[in-house]
Amino acid sequence: MWLAMVLFGAFHGLNPGMGWLFALTLGLQQRSERVIWLSLLPIALGHALAIIAVVLLVLAGLQFVPLATVQKFSALALLAFGLYKLFNYYRHPRWVGMKVGAGDLLLWSFLMASAHGAGLMLVPALLGAGDQAHAHHGGHALPGGFSMLAAVGLHTLTMLLVMGVVAWIVYRKLGLAVLRSSWINFDLIWAVALLLVGSLALWMAYSH
After folding, report:
1. Given phi > 0 = left and psi -120 to 50 = alpha, else beta, which region is 138?
2. Does the CA dihedral 96-171-43-57 come out positive or negative?
């Protein structure tokens, strides 16, 4: 489950829709590599807050609903959201423009991560991390919650590292021109990934 959080962090970091392209554009506009790194920090924080919001909802749900039910519901929600994104992958939340501050970037990242279902994608892995902590500590909820938050932190750090590396490579070595000639449709990949994760989560929920 911890490896899954790292891999999802790398995948989210590669996806330009999660923020590195926005940070890169701001850096190119102001001709400053420092702007890129400073922009990535609130973007990563907004992403983490969107996932923490999902964690809190899951923890609240576990107070009233058995874990197996939450697992099945989250898997079905993933499949439904994945189907929606599959047929609407070209739609994105609108923003006010490119003149933004740290607060704007944080809010934008939170909305983008929520709209793309980034937190929802992580629910199966988070439930697994929380379940392992429950078993290790005799079923107490608090260690499970701490385990989930630690998993979110690991995921966010991985995403931030990958975003920074990608943005630096494009800024220093490749330039934005490479995106016009070598663009990958990450939105479509994202929709397919949601469906794959949802299918795997549903299989795991019913196999136990």
Report:
1. left
2. positive
Are the C-beta atoms of 186 and 85 separated by less than 8 Å? no
Torsion 26-28-33-34 (CA) sign: negative
What type of residue sits at position 49?
Answer: L
147: CB partners within 8 A, 6+ apart: 129, 130, 132, 133
pTM, two decimals, is 0.73
pLDDT by residue (tens digit) across 7-64?
Answer: 889 988 888 778 888 888 888 778 888 888 899 999 999 999 999 988 888 888 778 8
Euclidean distance between CA atoms 132 and 117, whole angstroms? 24
Q: What CA–CA distances, in Å, run from 57 to 119, 120, 141, 154, 157?
A: 11, 11, 14, 20, 22
**Contact between residue 118 and residue 47 where contact means Cβ atoms under 8 Å apart:** yes
Residue 114 tokens, joined: 């929520």
One-letter amino acid of 79: L
